[in-house]
Design a protein that fits this description.
mainly alpha; about 0% strand
């Protein structure tokens, strides 16, 4: 199966067995690992909970994309279990960000809006690049689809961080940053639910998955 285009119109789901897909996935792993380092440092410098939440998302993506690569070509049940693990990981990230946001509500200090905006723009550029690399492979089994959902989360999160930066600058308040962090946590949880639902469905139907 060479590309997503060969399976999107049938019942057989793309499993990632494409050299082109693997090359693109390696590139996206590099982008996410690099942006995790950038946003971790930038989030601390800016005092932004939203940036730190987005940095955590980058780290989670880099790790789960590695799991995706390792699971490509494995048995259908193994691929579904890998996606199940990624779904649980994403769920835990969402819970952590919610807890961190609740904690920061009690902490004084306004994030540096200009630094938030600059790093948010850089992260958005990185994620748009990742989305363009992955868009032809956005449909597939749970293992492949989880990659697309994580990349989409990143792009949405970066737009939200930039909106929060503008709101922080306009209002001189930390609340826009905290609200955006909470929204991003909710997005993590929703994506985790989608991945878990599809992977559990695939585990219940191993015969249909192995047909391809």
């Amino acid at each position: 199966m060479a590309s997503c285009g060969s399976c999107c119109g049938s019942d057989v789901k793309f499993e990632g067995l494409s050299p082109d897909y693997k090359r693109r996935l390696w590139a996206v792993i590099g982008i996410n690992a690099g942006m995790f380092l950038v946003e971790t440092g930038g989030g601390h410098l800016a005092g932004s909970n939203a940036l730190q939440a987005d940095a955590l998302d980058f780290l989670g993506d880099a790790l789960t994309y590695g799991i995706t690569l390792a699971a490509i070509g494995a048995a259908a049940a193994t691929r579904a279990k890998a996606a199940l693990f990624k779904g649980f990981t994403l769920f835990l990230m969402g819970v952590w960000v919610f807890g961190s946001t609740a904690y920061h509500v009690l902490v004084l200090g306004i994030p540096r809006a200009e630094l938030m905006g600059a790093i948010g723009f850089l992260a958005l550029a990185a994620n748009v690049t990742s989305l363009l690399l992955l868009i032809r492979y956005k449909d597939g089994d749970a293992n492949v689809r989880s990659v697309w959902l994580c990349s989409r989360n990143d792009a949405i999160g970066n737009v939200a961080v930039m909106i929060a930066a503008a709101a922080v600058w306009l209002t001189t308040s930390k609340w826009p940053d905290l609200i955006v962090a909470a929204i991003m946590a909710g997005l993590f949880l929703w994506s985790a639910f989608q991945i878990l639902r599809q992977s559990l469905a695939e585990l219940r139907e191993p015969v249909s998955l192995s047909a391809g």
